[in-house]
Amino acid sequence: MTARKPPILVVLQLTGGNDILNTVVPYTSALYYDNRKRVHVAPEQVLPIDEQYGFHPSLAAIKPFWDDGKMAIVNGVGYENPNYSHFRSMDIWYTAEPEKVATDGWLGKVVRELDPKADNVLTAVSFGRGLPRALSLAGVPVASVAELDTYGLLTSLAGVDERNSALEVFSHMYDDGWNDMGKPCADFVPGGMGGDVLSYMGQTGLDAQKGADILRTVLDTYQSDIVYPDSKIAKSLKAVAQVKLANLGTRVFYTQHDSFDTHANELIVHGKLLREVSEAVAAFFADLRAHDAADDVIMLLWSEFGRRVKDNGGGTDHGAGGAAFLIGDPIKGGMYGEYPSLKEDTLIIGNLAHTYDFRTVYSSILERWFEVEARPIVNGSFEQFALV
Question: What domains can you pick out in the chain, each with its CATH number?
Answer without folding.
Answer: 8-151+229-378 (3.40.720), 153-215 (no CATH)
